C-alpha cells in the first residue's frame, strides 16, 4: 500500500510539482519580495520541490535536504518559507492522490495521510534542526564576542588602573568583570582602580549590588576602588532605590576620580610652565613695545 | 603544626603557607597574641598569598585575632589575599569591614609605617 | 575518577580531607580557579556544620553530566538533631555556635543549586550543585 502510494506520487510528480509551484507563489511575503528576485525565488522553489521528491524516491534519504537547507541558511531565507512550503506540499499531495482514486474510504484516507506524513515529517525535522543549529551557533559566537569586549583593564600610570564598563550588566557578566578586575589589580599591582560607569545605561539595585561587591573584593585583596562617571540620572536612581554607596568613594567624572587616585598614591599633576608666568611674559612684551 | 611568627624591629611578620585547619588557626591566634605581649610589637603583617581557601570559621578567627591585637596596641594588615579567595569571602557575605589590607608584604609594611607614624 | 566518592566526617581533621577531595574533583572537572575556591569553601562550610552540630555524617561528591552541562554535586548527610526552623538558619548572620553565621546562606550563594531537607531528631540532608560555566 505504502509503496503503491509512493509510486503514484512519483509517477505524477510533474503534476504535483506544478500544483505546488502555483500555490507557493502566494506564500511569498511582502518583506521577502524586496530582497529576492523572482528568478531566484522560482529556481529555489523548483529546487525545494525536487529535494522533497528526491527524498521520497530515495525512501527518506536526507543528504540533499542538508545541502539545500545550508543553501537557504546562507541566503537568509526565513524558516517559515520552509515549513509553509512543506505544509503546502503535504496538502497538495494528499489532495491529488485522493482526487485521483476511485476507492475513497476511511482506511484509504488515513493510509494516505500516514504515508504523506512519513515523507514530509523527516524533512521538516531535518530543516528545523539545521536552522536552530545555525541560530545556536550565531548565538554562541555573539556571546564570545560580548565577552571579549566585556571589561578591559587599562593601567594608566604606576599603581592606577581604569576599568570602563560599557553596556548592560547581568549577573553572569558581573562575575566575569569581577574576576577580570581582581586578576588585573594583582597583575598591574594597582593601588587604586577607577571603575567608570559612564557607559552603563541603567544602574538598578542588582547592578549596584554587583559593583559594591566588586569594590569590596578589591579592598580585600589590598587595593582601593573609586566609582566614577556617575551621571545625574544615575545618582537619582541610586538614591531613589535606597542603594547605600557610602562605603564606596564616588566621583562624577573620570577626570576628578583620576586626581583623587593621584592624591591617594601621593602624587599630583603640575603644569610644567605656570600659567601666571605666561601672562606676565605677555604683559612684559607688550610694555616693551 | 604551628605557624612561624617572625620579628622585624617593631613588626611581626607571618606568612601562612599551610592548609589551615581549625586547630592550627586557634593555635595561631594564641601564639600571635603571646608574641605581641612578649615583644611589644606595634604592627603585624599577615601574608595570605599562599592561602587558597578561607571559610567562615577561618575568617572569624582572623577577624577576631585582628580585633584582639588592636586591643593590645598592635595594628594588623592582611596582605596577598588571592582574587578567588576574595570572591568567595564576598559570596559568603564576609566583608572584613574594618580590616586593613594591602597587595603584598612590601605595601603592607609601607601601610603600617605610614599609619603608625601619624 | 569514580562517579561518586564520599568522606566521612567524624573529627575536625576530616573537614580538611573533605575540602581537599572537593578541590581535587573541581580541579579535575576543570572548573575555573574562582569556582574551585567556591566549591572548596562550600564543602568546608558543610563539613564544619556536620562536625559542629551533628557529630557524624558524610560529604559526597558526584560528577553530573547532562546533554549540554557538566557539573559537580556536593551533598551533606547527617543523622544529627536536625534543624527546627530552616528559614532561620538560612538568614544571614544567624548563628548558634558563635561563628559568623555565614554558613548555609553563604553556601547557597557559592553554589548554583541548593536544597535542604531536615527532620528534627532524624537528621539533615543538603544537596548542592555547581555547573561548569
Automatic annotation (TrEMBL), chain A:
Alphabetical list of PANTHER family matching this protein: RSBT ANTAGONIST PROTEIN RSBS-RELATED, RSBT CO-ANTAGONIST PROTEIN RSBRC
List UniProt keywords, sorted A-Z.
Answer: Phosphoprotein
Q: What is this protein called?
A: RsbR protein
Protein source organism: Oceanobacillus chungangensis
Q: State the Gene3D superfamilies in the record.
A: Globins, STAS domain
> Which top-level group of life is the source organism from?
Bacteria
- What SUPFAM superfamilies is this protein classified in? SpoIIaa-like (SSF52091)
> Which Pfam families does the record cross-reference, listed alphabetically?
Rsbr_N, STAS
Gene Ontology terms for molecular function: heme binding; oxygen binding
Residue stretches making up the STAS domain: 150-261
TrEMBL record, chain B:
What Gene3D superfamilies is this protein classified in?
Answer: STAS domain
Q: Which residues form the signal peptide?
A: none
Q: Which residues form a coiled coil?
A: none
**Residue ranges occupied by any STAS domain in the UniProt entry:** 1-112
Put simply, this protein is called RsbT antagonist protein RsbS
Q: Which organism is it from?
A: Oceanobacillus chungangensis
Q: Which InterPro entries match?
A: Bact_StressResp_Reg (IPR051932), STAS_dom (IPR002645), STAS_dom_sf (IPR036513)
From TrEMBL, chain C:
Where is coiled-coil annotated?
none
Per UniProt, which keywords does this protein have? ATP-binding, Nucleotide-binding
* Span of the signal peptide: none
Give GO MF terms, alphabetically.
ATP binding
Key word Nucleotide-binding present? yes
What region holds the Histidine kinase/HSP90-like ATPase domain?
34-133
The name of this protein is ATP-binding protein
Task: Name the source organism.
Answer: Oceanobacillus chungangensis
Lineage, highest ranks first? Bacteria, Bacillati, Bacillota, Bacilli, Bacillales
Amino acid at each position: 500500500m505504502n509503496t503503491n502510494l509512493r509510486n503514484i506520487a512519483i509517477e505524477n510528480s510533474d503534476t504535483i510539482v506544478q500544483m505546488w509551484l502555483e500555490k507557493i507563489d502566494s506564500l511569498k511575503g511582502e518583506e521577502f519580495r524586496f530582497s529576492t528576485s523572482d528568478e531566484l525565488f522560482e529556481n529555489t522553489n523548483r529546487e525545494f520541490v525536487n529535494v522533497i521528491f528526491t527524498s521520497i524516491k530515495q525512501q527518506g534519504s536526507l543528504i540533499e535536504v542538508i545541502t539545500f537547507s545550508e543553501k537557504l541558511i546562507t541566503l537568509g531565507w526565513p524558516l517559515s518559507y520552509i515549513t509553509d512550503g512543506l505544509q503546502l506540499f503535504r496538502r497538495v499531495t494528499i489532495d491529488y492522490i485522493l482526487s485521483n482514486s476511485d476507492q475513497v474510504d476511511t482506511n484509504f484516507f488515513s493510509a494516505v495521510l500516514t504515508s504523506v506524513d512519513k515523507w514530509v515529517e523527516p524533512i521538516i525535522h531535518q530543516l528545523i534542526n539545521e536552522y536552530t543549529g545555525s541560530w545556536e551557533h550565531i548565538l554562541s559566537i555573539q556571546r564570545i564576542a560580548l565577552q571579549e569586549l566585556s571589561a578591559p583593564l587599562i593601567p594608566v600610570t604606576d599603581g592606577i588602573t581604569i576599568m570602563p564598563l560599557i553596556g548592560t550588566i547581568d549577573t553572569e557578566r558581573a562575575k566575569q568583570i569581577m574576576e577580570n578586575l581582581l586578576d588585573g589589580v594583582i597583575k598591574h599591582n594597582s593601588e587604586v582602580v577607577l571603575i567608570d560607569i559612564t557607559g552603563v545605561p541603567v544602574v538598578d539595585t542588582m547592578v549596584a549590588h554587583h559593583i559594591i561587591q566588586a569594590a569590596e573584593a578589591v579592598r580585600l585583596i589590598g587595593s582601593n576602588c573609586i566609582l566614577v562617571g556617575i551621571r545625574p540620572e544615575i545618582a537619582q536612581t541610586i538614591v531613589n532605590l535606597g542603594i547605600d554607596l557610602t562605603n564606596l568613594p564616588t566621583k562624577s567624572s573620570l577626570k576628578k576620580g583620576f586626581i583623587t587616585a593621584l592624591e591617594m598614591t601621593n602624587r599630583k599633576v603640575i603644569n610644567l610652565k605656570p600659567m601666571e608666568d605666561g601672562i606676565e611674559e605677555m604683559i612684559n612684551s607688550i610694555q616693551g613695545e | 603544626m604551628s605557624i612561624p611568627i617572625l620579628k622585624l624591629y617593631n613588626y611581626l611578620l607571618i606568612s601562612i603557607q599551610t592548609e589551615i585547619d581549625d586547630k592550627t588557626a586557634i593555635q595561631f591566634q594564641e601564639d600571635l597574641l603571646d608574641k605581641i605581649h612578649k615583644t611589644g610589637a606595634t604592627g603585624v603583617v599577615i601574608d595570605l598569598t599562599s592561602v587558597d581557601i578561607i571559610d567562615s570559621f577561618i575568617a572569624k578567627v582572623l577577624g577576631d585575632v585582628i580585633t584582639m591585637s588592636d586591643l593590645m596596641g598592635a595594628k594588623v594588615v592582611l596582605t596577598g589575599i588571592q582574587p578567588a579567595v576574595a570572591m568567595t569571602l564576598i559570596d559568603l557575605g564576609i566583608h572584613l569591614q574594618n580590616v586593613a589590607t594591602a597587595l603584598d608584604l612590601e605595601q603592607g609594611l609601607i601601610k603600617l609605617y605610614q599609619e603608625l607614624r601619624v | 575518577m569514580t562517579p561518586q566518592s564520599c568522606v566521612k566526617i567524624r573529627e575536625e581533621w576530616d573537614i580538611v580531607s573533605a575540602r581537599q577531595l572537593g578541590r581535587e574533583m573541581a580541579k579535575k572537572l576543570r572548573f575555573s580557579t574562582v569556582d574551585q575556591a567556591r566549591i572548596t569553601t562550600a564543602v568546608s562550610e558543610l563539613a564544619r556544620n556536620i562536625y559542629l552540630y551533628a557529630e557524624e555524617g558524610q560529604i559526597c561528591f558526584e560528577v553530573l553530566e547532562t546533554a549540554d552541562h557538566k557539573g559537580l554535586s556536593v551533598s551533606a548527610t547527617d543523622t544529627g538533631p536536625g534543624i527546627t526552623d530552616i528559614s532561620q538558619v538560612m538568614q544571614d548572620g544567624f548563628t548558634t555556635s558563635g561563628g559568623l553565621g555565614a554558613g548555609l546562606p553563604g553556601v547557597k550563594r557559592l553554589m548554583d543549586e541548593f536544597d535542604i531537607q531536615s527532620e528534627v531528631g532524624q537528621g539533615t540532608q543538603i544537596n548542592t550543585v555547581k555547573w561548569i560555566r
